[in-house]
Write a structure and sequence with these properties.
The complex is a heterotrimer of chains A (about 270), B (about 350) and C (about 280). By secondary structure, chain A is mainly α. Helices cover about 80% and strands about 0% of the residues of chain A. In chain A, helix 3 runs parallel beside helix 7. The longest helix of chain A has about 35 residues. Chain B is built from 14 helices and 11 strands. In chain B, helix 2 links the parallel strand 1 and strand 2. The longest helix of chain B has 27 residues. The chains are: A mainly alpha (about 270), B alpha/beta (about 350), C mainly alpha (about 280).
Chain lengths: ~270, ~350, ~280
């Protein structure tokens, strides 16, 4: 179906206007508001002690969530891509669950499970280990929302790559660890990397669930997103804009990574 | 032909290894930078405290605490003590501490929020045995109005004029809300003697003139300042802090905000010193300057102009004390005012 | 040597003995601990007070008002984003213009941006102090805008690959038979895209009804007007009403699952019809 020139232009215009009004202009507004007072002010605002603590906390959570997701996610992806087993469909559906659950509901779920009045309340009451209002709660909330990413990015790559190389390695005498480390892992490295990038971005950006399970004390239990919220509600909108720009930079890195990853995948496809 | 290009894997592994090292280095560098509780630009790592007390407070006393903390740090007992504060709706904060939210000192809007912690064993029973009964500062219920007071709101009956929208928070989470509703209740029921009249007023006020349900006193102030509503029921200290035009009704209520030490604190002695500090003339002056009515009579005298005495000031004692009115009016399920509120706003 | 090679060839790909069960077991355990157990705890807690408590929590005036607000705004936003999503996907696939790659990448920004930043971003432009004079904070339009922002990518990304794979020959055949553009669009293209549109719509709707971070600053939580169910759930949990919060959460989850299921079903049927039509 070929559209007439005017129709084509009108469609382009509408699409452009929608994207500009909804995405481009608001983002530009934040950038402007954060940077207009000057780069010096910007850096001062993102380097207050509370901001530094927030950055450290967010990065610490990432440092735990990413390895866990890789260690458990890659084998899960392998078993989903390569094996048939009973209940496979149920497992697939369960992996997609986090996409359908509201962040507030995640917070509620963790509170009714690990809170002092919750089903596993004995962990806090008898063992003294605080999950809610403690660091583990933030980690659990972040794990909930990031579980699908590594799995969902690695699995299709495994499908595409196939088992030829692995089987060849078997005939050449490699054991399962050698095959995994030398063949499987390199073959999925782009999918894995992108999955990790998504995990990092999502962890840094999680707000609703963390808001509910954290004690939100500046300098102790505030992540970057909680700091943004706090600064805005306590009457420091400029401070909120500056941290937002930092988080936006992370989002941009994700987008760039996606472009690179897509290019890589199409290159691999054409190479075959 | 499947081959395992060793050179490629080696190259990618070294590339990945160097990338990981770079990441690890930068992360350790970042971690080495000190963090802290202060969110003030330019403070940096100057004031490194030996002890940090965690204060869990209700929504509005930040203007006071932010000045008290450095004042305390300037004293002999307070040297090297920093304060991290968390502000939020009084009821929510109290329930949070009960559920495990870390705290060394608590400062809530209403006494029942402290009593909850006494029952949970987190605050000693004798917390209010002192001369000032555990209350170092307070306020009164005031009407914050629009500039020029266009709807001419001066007294409780003016709130019931048709078309007047009243902003007040939800008593299920906010301490401010309880004060805001106790004030007209006391006024209309003549100190609780005519219970029905008091309830009737609250009923009409809440069902006809209250549409929103802000969670805390501070949120209510924010909503009002952003343009919604004709009058905000608030602490006098909120109106002073935000320079809002306000009118003290002739009959209003004495707000008393308690402070207590959490007995599971790891810094029990410093926390106790901090709480005791609030009653010293120096601290009382800081509170008064921040807009909170001091309890020290000498300081109160000094600031008499800033804090005019209302014609009639009702207190919780007049109504029989919190142990009577809190369950009767504000119980979560059966409180009379709670029920009115739930019916009106859901 | 030959016999050895044969022996190796006969042996299956290198896997640890009994590996499958262990791997599946570990995967299930991991998912259970992180995802399934907390969700099960919600189901359990919502039933703690019996059917009566569940029902009264779900039918309280605030809960019903929040459902009404949530569903109306979410449905509206989903429909709008279906139309615009299709349009944008069309332009991205069938059109060529400078900076197309950039636009294509930008579409995913709402996926990557923290929701609280999205709220701030929209507020700075369409809230108080707006440089363009549009002030929709504390209105349903503000909430709708925020939801449109975060759900934009779903339909676009669902439709794009299908549009890419679409067989132009059918369109050309229809054109040669004298059909005009509108007919081609309605009779050939739209049915082919229907499954993807429905799938994208389902994901967008599911995301919209649970959205919290992006509306928390711009919405204002006005009961009956801008307070959505996720905010009401938060209020309930702060007021220590765990059973009520769990009950409303269950309702949200159910709505999500039912809608996703229905749309998947119709999508699968549409896909089958397309295939048999070929």
């Amino acid at each position: 179906m070929t559209l007439s020139r005017p129709a084509q232009l009108i469609l382009r215009l509408i699409a452009a206007l929608y994207v500009i009004a909804l995405l481009v202009v608001p983002l530009g507004a934040i950038l402007w508001r954060a940077l207009a007072p000057g780069v010096g002010d910007f850096f001062a605002s993102i380097s207050t002690p509370a901001a530094q603590s927030a950055l450290q906390l967010s990065l610490l959570v990432v440092a735990i969530v990413v390895p866990l997701n890789v260690i458990f996610g890659v084998p899960t992806a392998i078993v989903l891509a390569r094996r048939k087993f009973r209940g496979k469909n149920a497992l697939q559906a369960a992996i997609d669950l986090p996409f359908a659950v509201s962040p507030v509901v995640i917070g509620v779920a963790l509170i009714v499970l690990w809170g002092s009045a919750g089903l596993f309340g004995f962990v806090q009451n008898s063992w003294g280990l605080k999950i809610i209002f403690g660091f583990p709660g933030i980690v659990l909330a972040s794990l909930f929302v990031t579980i699908p990413f590594v799995i969902r990015e690695v699995e299709p790559v495994l499908h595409e790559v196939g088992t030829d190389q692995e089987e060849a390695a078997a005939t050449l005498g490699a054991n399962w660890w050698q095959t995994f480390w030398r063949i499987t892992l390199p073959s999925i490295r782009w999918g894995l990397t992108y999955g990790v990038v998504l995990t990092v971005a999502r962890t840094l950006g999680e707000f609703g669930a963390v808001l509910m399970v954290s004690s939100n004390l500046p300098g102790q239990s505030q992540t970057l997103t909680l700091l943004v919220h706090d600064r805005y509600t306590l009457g420091n909108p400029y401070g909120a804009y500056t941290i937002s720009v930092v988080l936006m930079a992370v989002a941009l890195i994700v987008l760039v990574a996606q472009i690179v990853f897509d290019a890589q995948r199409s290159r691999v496809k054409t190479e075959d | 032909m499947p081959s395992v290009p060793k050179t490629v894997t080696a190259r990618t592994s070294t590339k990945r290894a160097s990338a990981l090292t770079a990441l690890a280095l930068s992360t350790t560098l970042l971690a080495a930078c000190a963090g802290g509780a202060s969110d003030v630009v330019g403070e940096g790592n100057v004031a490194d405290a030996d002890t940090t007390l965690t204060l869990v407070a209700y929504a509005v006393p930040e203007p006071g605490w932010s000045k008290i903390a450095p004042a305390f740090a300037g004293t002999e007992e307070g040297k090297g003590v920093g304060v991290t504060a968390s502000y939020g709706a009084s009821g929510d904060q109290s329930r949070g501490v009960e559920s495990g939210k870390p705290a060394d000192v608590v400062n809530f809007s209403v006494e029942p929020d402290i009593t909850r912690l006494v029952k949970a064993g987190l605050v000693d029973e004798d917390w209010n045995a002192g001369a000032q009964k555990g209350v170092p500062f307070g306020s009164v219920v005031t009407f914050a109005v629009r500039e020029g007071n266009p709807k001419d709101i001066r007294d409780w009956n003016d709130l019931l004029k048709p078309g007047v929208e009243v902003i007040t928070p939800s008593p299920l989470s906010s301490g401010s809300a309880k004060w805001n509703l106790l004030a007209p209740y006391a006024a209309k029921s003549n100190g609780g003697r005519d219970h029905a009249a008091g309830i009737a007023y609250v009923q009409e006020l809440v069902s006809q003139h209250v549409k929103l349900r802000p969670g805390s006193g501070r949120e209510a102030t924010d909503v009002f300042r952003q343009g919604t509503g004709d009058v905000l029921l608030a602490y006098e200290n909120e109106a002073l802090h935000y320079d809002l035009e306000h009118v003290n009704p002739p009959q209003t209520f004495k707000i008393e905000n308690p402070v207590a030490v959490v007995n599971t604190s790891k810094h029990l002695d410093k926390a106790t010193e901090f709480v005791n500090f609030q009653y010293t003339p120096e601290a009382q002056k800081v509170w008064a300057e921040a807009g909170f009515r001091p309890v020290d009579p000498a300081i109160a005298e000094e600031f008499a102009e800033k804090f005019p005495a209302p014609e009639k000031l009702w207190t919780v004692t007049d109504l029989g004390g919190w142990s009577k009115v809190d369950p009767q009016l504000f119980d979560k399920d059966n409180g009379e005012i709670t029920k009115i509120y739930k019916q009106a706003t859901g | 040597m030959t016999t050895q090679a044969d022996a190796y060839a006969v042996r299956r790909s290198p896997r640890r003995p009994g590996g499958a069960t262990l791997q599946v077991g570990v995967a299930v355990l991991w998912l259970s601990l992180i995802v399934l157990l907390p969700l099960a705890a919600i189901v359990w807690t919502s039933a703690e007070g019996g059917w009566g408590a569940f029902w009264s929590a779900v039918t309280s005036p605030s809960a019903l008002a929040s459902f009404r607000v949530t569903l109306t705004i979410s449905i509206g936003v989903t429909l709008v984003n279906v139309v615009f999503g299709l349009l944008i996907a069309w332009v991205l696939v069938r059109d060529e213009f400078p900076l197309k790659r950039v636009v294509d990448a930008i579409i995913d920004l709402p996926f990557a941006l923290p929701t609280i930043v999205a709220s701030l971003v929209l507020l700075s432009l369409y809230g108080p102090g707006s440089p363009v004079g549009i002030h929709i904070q504390h209105t349903a339009w503000g909430v709708a805008l925020a939801l449109a922002f975060v759900t934009l990518p779903f339909v676009v990304r669902a439709v794009q690959p299908v549009l890419l794979e679409l067989d132009r020959e059918v369109e050309e055949a229809a054109a040669s038979l004298g059909a005009n553009n509108l007919t081609i669009f309605l009779r050939v293209i739209l049915p082919a895209l229907a499954p993807a549109l429905l799938s994208g719509a389902g994901l967008a709707f599911s995301r919209a009804i649970g959205e919290f971070g992006s509306i928390v600053l711009i919405g204002g939580a006005i009961p009956g007007e801008t307070e959505v169910s996720s905010q009401w759930i938060r209020t309930l949990i702060e007021n220590d009403d765990r059973v009520g919060a769990a009950a409303i959460s269950i309702v949200l989850l159910l709505i999500s699952f039912v809608v996703l299921f229905i749309l998947r079903y119709f999508g699968a049927r549409a896909a089958k019809r397309e295939e048999s039509a070929r």
